[in-house]
Design goal:
By secondary structure, the chain is an all-alpha fold. It is built from 15 helices and two strands. Helix content is 77%, strand content 1%.
């Protein structure tokens, strides 16, 4: 991401200041938690997509910075709430908000972040940007609930899988790119084109996460973690739909009843690898990546296009 960080050096520095201002609170406990969250935020991948999408379609404006802040606020709120739902004690190799402040405070912190994001847009009349990103929140919630519903039966078809990840993962990145484009151009056609670009990138990003569950690299979560949580990822879905009936029943039984047994999880991973599930998922990931990159050919700004291409390739080449 060196090129993206280099050409956005000034914008990212200003965004960082604006984001810190956006989360400030007069309540001492809340302000302390906000500082904890801000100091441990990730790579700013989504704000970079917002800023670069704006640069590709025009120029970065104050509305762009607010859109980037709103994206980061919504993303952070979703992570705080996810840690409560998953009872996760770690986030990015640090204690999670849930680990330090438990359920009630964590839920309220997530709600606070959502409210701050809404007010940031409403107070500045960024109604279209707010509409774009509010739709992402709806899709994220629907995607998570659909996954919970379908995972209970372990009878998930590939088209349903894409519906789930399009909502729970890709929608926020799609909306980030769309909001960035609209903030710079007020052009609905450009905003939609960048939404599709972000959606395809987001789907590739999620498939990469799926693949981590079957690898041996240190990726910030234990190998087989999705299997333990009964989450049906693309390599497993492909395997379930392409093995014989006896093997399928065996896999379903293990995931339902032996998903805490390390040896059984290893058995599932081995069957997925032998069945071609890893290769299939990797090919699908590359297809979505290439479809996203093809959209950039419709634009002229060579430097920004190269930076966006770098970010897209990061989503599929990353090691964690």
């Amino acid at each position: 991401m060196k090129l993206s960080q280099a050409i956005l050096h000034e914008e990212l520095a200003l965004f960082d200041k604006k984001f810190k201002d956006a989360v400030k609170s007069q309540v001492p406990l809340l302000d302390r938690i906000m500082r904890f969250i801000v100091n441990r935020k990730g790579k700013q991948l989504r704000p970079m997509f917002v800023l670069l999408s704006a640069r590709l379609c025009g120029r970065v404006t104050e509305s762009t910075y607010r859109a980037a802040s709103l994206v980061e606020l919504l993303h952070t709120a979703s992570l705080v709430h996810d840690d409560v739902v998953d009872e996760s004690l770690e986030r990015r190799s640090f204690f999670s908000t849930y680990a330090l402040w438990k359920t009630k405070i964590s839920v309220l912190v997530g709600d606070y972040l959502l409210a701050k994001g809404l007010l940031l847009s409403l107070d500045n009349n960024d109604f279209r940007v707010l509409q774009i990103l509010s739709d992402a929140v709806r899709q994220m919630s629907e995607g998570e609930l659909l996954q919970m519903e379908k995972s209970r039966s372990l009878n998930l078809q590939e088209d349903v899988y894409y519906t789930i990840i399009r909502g729970k993962t890709a929608s926020l990145l799609a909306s980030a790119c769309s909001a960035g484009a609209y903030s710079a151009s007020q052009n609905e056609e450009l905003a939609e084109k960048m939404r599709v670009f972000g959606e395809k990138t987001g789907i590739a990003f999620q498939i990469k996460d799926d693949l981590f569950d079957y690898g041996n690299e240190e990726v910030g979560k234990p190998t087989g973690n999705d299997i333990k949580e009964k989450k049906l990822t693309l390599p497993l879905i492909y395997t379930l739909n392409n093995v014989d009936g006896a093997t399928r029943r065996k896999l379903i039984y293990i995931v339902k009843n032996n998903n805490k047994d390390k040896e059984k999880i290893r058995e599932v991973i081995d069957i997925v690898k032998q069945s071609g599930g890893i290769e299939y998922a990797r090919k699908k990931m590359m297809d979505y990546r290439d479809e996203a990159l093809a959209i950039l050919n419709d634009f002229d700004n060579a430097e920004v296009k190269k930076a966006l291409e770098e970010l897209v390739r990061f989503t599929t080449d990353r090691k964690f």
